[in-house]
Automatic annotation (TrEMBL):
InterPro entries: AAA_16, P-loop_NTPase, Sig_transdc_resp-reg_C-effctor, TPR-like_helical_dom_sf, Tscrpt_reg_LuxR_C, WH-like_DNA-bd_sf. Keywords: ATP-binding, Nucleotide-binding. It comes from the Bacteria. CDD domains: LuxR_C_like. It comes from Streptomyces liliiviolaceus. Transmembrane segments: none annotated. This is AAA family ATPase. Pfam families: AAA_16, GerE. The keyword DNA damage does not apply. GO terms for cellular component: cytoplasm. GO terms for biological process: regulation of DNA-templated transcription.
Amino acid sequence: MRGRRHERDTLAALADAVETGRSAVLVLRGEAGIGKTALLDHLAARAASHRVARGAGAESEMELPYAGLHQLCAPFLELAAHLPSPQREALATAFGLSTGPPPDRFMVGLAVLGLLTDAAADKPLFCLVDDAQWLDKVSAQTLSFVARRMLAEPLALVFATREPSGRDDFADLPELTLQGLTNADARALLDSVPGNPADDQIRERILAEARGNPLALLELPQGRTGAADALDLPDPGQVTGRIERSYLDRVRTLPADTQRLLLIAAAEPIGDVTLLRRATEHVDIAPGALGPAVAAGLLDIGALVRFRHPLLRSAVYRSASLTDLRKTHRVLAEVTDHALDPDRRAWHLARATVRPDEAIAADLEAAGGRAMSRGGAAAAAAFLAHAAVLTPQPRRKAARALAAAEAKLRAGAPTAARELLALAESTAADEHGRARAALLRAHIAFASSHAGPAPTALLAAARRLVPLDVDLARETFLDAISAAMFAGRSAAGTDVGDVAAAARQTTPSAKHTPRHVDLLLDAFSTRFTDGYEAAVDASRAAVRALRQETRTEEVLRWSWQASVLAAEMWDDRAWSELSARHVRTTRGVGALAELPLALNSRVVVHACAGELEAAALLSAEIATIQEAADSTFTAYGTLTLAAWQGRDREAAELIRTTMDRAADRGETGVGAAIAQRALALLHNSLGMYAEALDAAVEASRDPRNLVAANWALVELVEAAARLGRHEVAERALTRLTRITDAAGTDWALGVQARSRALLARGAAAEVLHREAVERLERTLVHSELARAHLVYGEWLRRENRRGDARHHLRTAHAMFGVFGAEAFTERAVRELRATGETVASRSGAAPTSLTAQEKQIAQLARDGLTNPEIGAQLFLSPHTVEWHLRKVYAKLGITSRRQLHTAL
């Protein structure tokens, strides 16, 4: 630890923070041998009176899912019984302790956060992870997730890792980069090495080669005492390479059996002493072969076999010939229990074989299936890729390569998926295999590039599948329609009408009754080929079927599409019911990757219902999930919320920023229309009718932009009517009337009546205003009801019926005020004042200084959720939730959650 004062001070500050009840995260970066492990040892000694958990990545275990995480969490697994059921089950499945559906990795992350928090409840916990660059991918992602969600727990996570080469799961976490020792410190360390060279030339040579690397200063002097060592040419290699060569020089002085034993230990990743003994007995290595390695300080034998340094292990392994490596892995496979550890046995077999071998390939495929069932998509892909390479039969090879490519895509590695897909395509023996490969290529293109090419690729794949697998073809057509809806004019050579026309030429398989996908595809394809009116019956049938569905998988798979159709049909009750169930189901099963999509729909439902506070809570939750998952999902629902909230600059900036980002991704279809409609709504609320008209024209230009185009017609009629652009308003009203007459719901006919009233005169206008209010009172879309009262009151004032006008304007003012719709509230204020009534403006300022997260937690607590339930929803530990609540109580001047109802 010589010369590491700054680093020691940093670790001391970290320890002090944890001991006072705060969380701390640190990433120690630097080349091999620079002192990261020594600093971890120093921190472990500093925290010896507390709980210390240690783990380390192993290069040979990078393909085994959750290996690193299990190593770190194993001492605390008895505490898993206290976790909420979904978290407990996810963790048990991930660690192979029970069977179940593949766990969502964010649910596993939340479980690990809860587990470590519970472990730190009575005594600070320091989790120290060495060689983090060699953690398996899912372990690294999970620990990174936990590190980003810690806040107020007496818990430290410290990672030691080399400089990133490729993926870096710990980017943007607090870090400390270790540099080489100063010349003076390097000399002092060299002087402390027993038997260090007395020859000044050799010492200078070692100092020059070590470049301040502490491990090099400790290892390079070994065996360098003769005059010839000072005359050698300087070693031009990297410091790491020189250390490895120094280790190898020492290894080669050992007996042959000891060298063979070291290779077996290097190839066996878990350091199992019993397994090592069985392996050495299997190949007749003398029982005393271990002694020289221990005596030379290269191995340490305790509960586990440990190398002096990971560089020694890698040097031994990499220097071996391919023949020796294959023999070694074959031995380890033979002594590994097939029943207790089938995945590790398959892993060794894969490295022991170069020729195709169906039995080994089958074992690897089974290991891949187990990895996938535990949520380890990256590990599953690695096993399946090995299986494909070793498969002798071409058709089976293609199937396994395709499965590996699918797993790679699921793991977020489209480039690797594309490489495996090339193998699948080159060995596919039939058209069905080639068609499945074409479908995967389309999905890879959609996941890894601009959205524009995706509809064309998906359409081609769907057409190819029609004669081979019509069920899969129809699912692919529906995916292509969704892609084309968002791509809009960016779709390269294919628009949503092309996809819909091709889809209508297919019929569901006669082997079963029409599935949800069939009903949805019929509705969407009819909508995009024959128009709105023709699609009403098919749309209602699809929505009705989904409302009656109870199977979790079906609810998760199709709720978003059904919700879109319900909103398109102006069916507020079905829309609300479907969206609420979608959120409940995703929460219930822990499908957190699906949750932002479900929440997004629900945000719009709440906004239309005038429940802007509830919508804001869900919008904040989407942001929390995106931060935790590093997601690029575009939450278009937040634009509708922002427009209803009516905060001019804030909303306009959010809408324009979202539009720019969507355009960069090639989403110039329905997403752009949603943004333009939100902008039109915002400008209408502010009385900026010219700007509202421009935005509404853009939003309604393409009637194939579902929901947004129809809703934009409402904004277009109002803006054009206010500007005296009656011809423009009449054309929009004609389109709106045709659509809303076909829908026939109170919501549809209510907004139609309100729109018609804006262009009517005298008694006819009053009849329409009354009809709008009466119809919208029977709906859940209270925001539209408040607007109906507002425009009715505005009309009455212009008719000089001030008393009648005040009744409706007061109602609108009260409703918008409760909603938190600031711009519409101010519009109602201006109208009331014009009637001669005195009314104060609403400032819109928050009554307290709560942060967004504090407000979110406070309202969830007010609604009766427990701290664990709030933590599960917001990706926080219960301890952190309680810490936030204490701050909330202090700011609100209250002492308990019972008082939150009044205080908020």
